[in-house]
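Re: beginner question about structure tokens

> Can someone show what the tokenized structure looks like for a real chain? I only ever see the sequence side.

Sure, here's an example I had lying around. Input first:
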Amino acid sequence: MSAINDQQKALLAPAVTLISWTFFMEAWMYATRIPAMSKYNVKYTNQHLSADFARQIPASIRWKADNYNHLHEQPPIFYVVILIMVFLSQSNGGAASELSLNDSVGGATGLDVNLAWAYVGLRVVHSLIQAIANPIFVRFGVFATSSFVLLGLTLRTARLVF
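And the corresponding structure tokens:
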């Protein structure tokens, strides 16, 4: 396998950032959940359902775990889309950090990189909204926007494949 080029790094950076954010959310989940289990004297055995466990701790503690789970639902599609773009990309001699919206990176463009970063930013905002206050309609608006960004990125990737 050849060395990774700057263009491929530009596409992979948002994916690595979202993976890192997922680990941050996992740490936040443990940092709140483990003390809550002691504080609220949570009882849990292999005979209990996860819903039984969830009822024993406040919703504000569960929100972090809910978001951590959400980061394993839609984002894997994002990771695959990015990997397809990287796989299909080829070095064109330009620095990816200098891409304009229409400059090509082996088929991918600066717009694709910007869409990838937009998706990651929206997922981080979604996480913060859910983990801190969880206003459902606001959270849904951010989620829907991120879904449309991912759809756009997916359609742009499809143009490289078909």
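Each token stands for a local structural state, so reading them left to right follows the chain. The radius of gyration is 19 Å.
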